[in-house]
Design a protein that fits this description.
The protein is of the alpha/beta class. It contains twelve helices and 17 strands. The strands form four sheets. It has a five-stranded parallel beta sheet with strand order 3-2-1-4-5, sandwiched between helices. The protein has a five-stranded parallel beta sheet with strand order 10-9-11-8-12, sandwiched between helices. InterPro entries: 4pyrrol_Mease (IPR000878), 4pyrrol_Methylase_sf (IPR035996), 4pyrrole_Mease_sub1 (IPR014777), 4pyrrole_Mease_sub2 (IPR014776), CobA/CysG_C (IPR006366), NAD(P)-bd_dom_sf (IPR036291), Siro_Cobalamin_biosynth (IPR050161), Sirohaem_synth (IPR012409).
Length: 417
């Protein structure tokens, strides 16, 4: 049911926030509109009772774990007894009118999905950023409210609307650390929470593989610390990074540790978490899109495919097979039939390819190498295990690059953009 604008002269809205924890809310209807309303009510942890002979599969999924109570019949008078709030969301105007009339008699605020003019309450366009809740009323025009809400959320996400009020952590110091996975490089692939954490930070400790353009959007008051670790080149010691995170947090700063990919996929993120916990610093982890899956996907290569592979393994290639410090069982990897994704394995690629062939993979197994994945400089080169070393040398490919071994490489097609 499309919501229609209402003449705002019919009543000025008084904006409030309902605290519905444990309070009974009755939703009449089981379609898509009811689904949207129920989702928000469950987020507010209301005691939701759904009255409808049929419901959508998504609503039914809430029933089994006991998230809501489903009364499987049509609405009847008296169903609003004990309710604090009601929603009339059926496709029958007479039923909605009856629900609204009962609500009016019992002094229960009621939102009618089919007739805003007849509702005693207008549901705002709601958005959430962490514990910040944004509710927009559009002067009787729901589309206007949605448009403004989305603009505010986008501004909070990209930092153009700054939410920089410090929030002391109860029982702890004012400072904190957020470990942010920035994704494979394209700034558009960072999560909403990750972008928000960077926008709110007083200090950003960033790797060179993190989305660098995000740093350019930060205000000059934000301190940016370069914690890059260049392959076979200059790098900041992990112990120094850990100490910086703790030092700034204990000084009352909000610190964002911006890393490429996901912090826990060969990112040494757990070491940073442990350092913060040991120092009593509150720390949050924001997962990121790992390049092990995201970069092949962007190049049109799935790491799994029905009927072709039931497994994939991600391996760090920073040490070659046979190295005394290597923890990889290359013999076991070679015996696998599925997909092998190698990170940090450009320099060691010839030795790894040889080990895979030695332990069972066919020399002609397809390989795709994706360099600078997700960036404007991305290159995809296809070869085989037998030809991998020569191909990398001929193409002049250096880090960062991800390479994929397996039959899924033959499926690779770039989707039209």
């Amino acid at each position: 049911m499309p919501e229609t604008p209402v003449d705002p002269r019919t009543g000025v809205v008084y904006p409030i926030g309902l605290r519905l924890l444990g309070r009974r809310v009755v939703v009449v209807g089981g379609g898509q509109v009811a689904h949207r309303r129920v989702a928000g009510l469950l987020e507010a942890r209301a005691d939701v009772v759904l009255v409808s002979p049929e419901v959508t599969p998504a609503l039914e999924a809430f029933v089994a774990p006991g998230s809501l109570t489903w009364i499987r019949r049509r609405y009847s008078s008296g169903d609003l007894e004990g309710a604090w709030y009601a929603v009339a969301a059926t496709d029958d105007r007479e039923v909605n009118a009856a629900v609204a009339a009962e609500a009016e008699r019992n002094r229960i605020f009621c939102a009618r999905a089919d007739d805003r003019a007849a509702s005693s309450v207008w549901t705002p366009a709601v958005g959430r950023q962490g514990d910040l809740v944004i509710g927009i009323h559009g002067g009787g025009d729901p589309q206007r409210a949605v448009s403004v809400r989305d603009a505010v959320l986008a501004g909070l996400a990209d930092g153009s609307i700054a939410d920089r009020v410090a929030r002391p952590v109860p029982g702890g110091p004012a400072g904190s650390v957020v470990l942010v996975g920035g994704g494979p490089g394209d700034p558009g692939l960072i999560t909403v929470r990750g972008r928000q954490a960077v926008a709110q930070a007083d200090v950003v400790v960033a790797d060179h593989l993190a989305p660098q353009s995000l740093l350019a959007s930060l205000p000059p008051t934000v301190e940016v610390i370069d914690a890059s670790k260049l392959p076979r080149g200059r790098s900041m010691a992990q112990e120094e990074i850990n100490a910086l995170l703790v030092e700034h947090a204990l000084a009352g700063k909000r610190v964002a540790r911006l890393k490429g990919g996901d912090p826990f996929v060969f990112g040494r993120g757990m070491e940073e978490v442990e350092a913060c916990v040991a120092a009593g610093v509150p720390v949050e982890v924001v997962p990121g899109v790992t390049s092990a899956i995201g970069v092949p996907a962007l190049a049109g290569i799935p790491v799994t495919h029905r009927g072709l592979t039931h497994e994939f393994v991600v391996v760090s290639g920073h040490l070659p097979p046979g190295h005394p410090a290597s923890l990889v069982d290359w013999a076991a990897i070679g015996r696998l039939r599925g997909t092998v994704v190698v990170l940090m394995g450009v320099d060691t690629a010839p030795q790894i390819a040889a080990a895979l062939v030695e332990h069972g993979r066919a020399p002609g197994t397809p390989v795709a190498v994706i360099a600078d994945g997700s960036t404007p400089d991305e290159r995809v080169v296809r070869t085989t295990l037998a030809g991998l070393g020569a191909t990398l040398a001929a193409e002049g490919i250096g880090p960062p690059a991800v390479w994929v071994v397996g039959e899924v490489v033959s499926l690779g097609v770039r989707a039209p953009s």
